[in-house]
Specification:
This protein is an alpha+beta fold. It is built from four helices and two strands, in the order αββααα. The protein has a two-stranded antiparallel ribbon. The longest helix is centred in the last third of the chain and has 11 residues. The termini are far apart.
Length: 82
């Protein structure tokens, strides 16, 4: 079944609801447009790899901790002496 979308003056389209449901995408999601050998454009949901999704993980913690030496010293203060 084909779905038709209209190009706006700003060269934008609205992806029909049925297409969004079938692709599993929603507001804020990214899509990749690939070109098939026959000249067709193919819309594919952008899925980040596990590694890519972890980039920046803990950045807020690092910001709160300050420099590494200061954070290590704060952590050492919480350790129990043997």
């Amino acid at each position: 079944m084909a779905h038709v979308a209209t190009l706006t003056r700003k060269s934008q389209i609205t992806i029909p609801a049925e297409v969004r449901r079938r692709l599993g995408i929603g507001p804020g999601d990214k899509v990749v447009v690939e070109f098939a050998e026959d000249g067709r454009a193919v819309l594919v949901p952008f899925r980040r790899s596990v590694v890519e999704s972890m980039v920046g993980l803990g950045a807020e913690l690092r910001r709160d901790a300050g420099d590494g030496v200061a954070a290590l010293n704060r952590d050492r203060d919480t350790w129990d002496d043997p």
